[in-house]
Amino acid sequence: MHIIVALFITGIIIGAIYLVAGKQIEENISLINMVAIEAGEAPEEREIKLETSANNKKELDVYPSYGSQYATIQIPKIDVDLPVYLGDTIEILKKGVGHYSASYFPGEGGSIVYMGHNSAKVFRRFSELQIGNEIFVKTSYGDFKYKIYDMQIIDESEGDEKIPIQHDEEKLMVYTCYPFINIGYTSKRFVVYANLEQ
After folding, report:
1. DSSP of 56-123, one letter per residue?
2. For 50-196, which CATH superfamily applies?
3. Rounded CA separation 79/176 (Å)
4. 177 is catalytic
5. How does DSSP classify residue 88?
6. Phi, psi at residue 13, to the nearest 5°?
7. Residue 117 among the catalytic residues
8. Is the pTM of this model over 0.90?
9. Which of 102, 44, 40 is nearest to 68 (CA)?
10. Which part of the chain has CATH 2.40.260.10?
11. For residue range 103-154, what is the model confidence (pLDDT) as tens digits?
12. 139 C-beta neighbours (distance < 10 Å), count
């Protein structure tokens, strides 16, 4: 009898949730289905080109698919040579460096945000970097050189303020968890800021 009552109450709760948020749930499921790739199905990648738009801004003619590698990042000072993937999920960061998808791409003239783990294979040696060191991003549509002008330790809650998306100047911001020897969650980030070198 208790099981029947529990099932009845659960049904009422689920029905109420669906009545209140049903449309939003359906829209979210529809959106997920639009971007999802079925297992074993590889997206067809087109050649990416950097073009000048009608409003005289540079932008990619086609963007990489989410989760795909589109570049490599090289930081000679600390022997970094890693793949860059569009996105910042845990699975992506296990493979290399993630590109925050709401930021610009190299060459587009705005803020680019990359992140990676503080592991020995990724950004553990960030403490060795100095102002003036170079960062190279190599893509299929061009190679870009950036020069470090600042480094900061920030709290993760300061992300919007300290890692801002700017639209009028190309800056590369790369961050990792801090302290570097920490394993697991930490609320601090070490951010490297670099300007595009012309």
Report:
1. S-EEESSPPPTT-EEEEEEEGGGTEEEEEEEB--HHHHHHSEEE-TTSPPTTSSSEEEEE---STTTT
2. Sortase (2.40.260.10)
3. 16
4. yes
5. -
6. -65, -45
7. yes
8. no
9. 44
10. 50-196
11. 999 999 999 999 999 888 889 899 999 999 999 999 989 999 999 999 999 9
12. 18
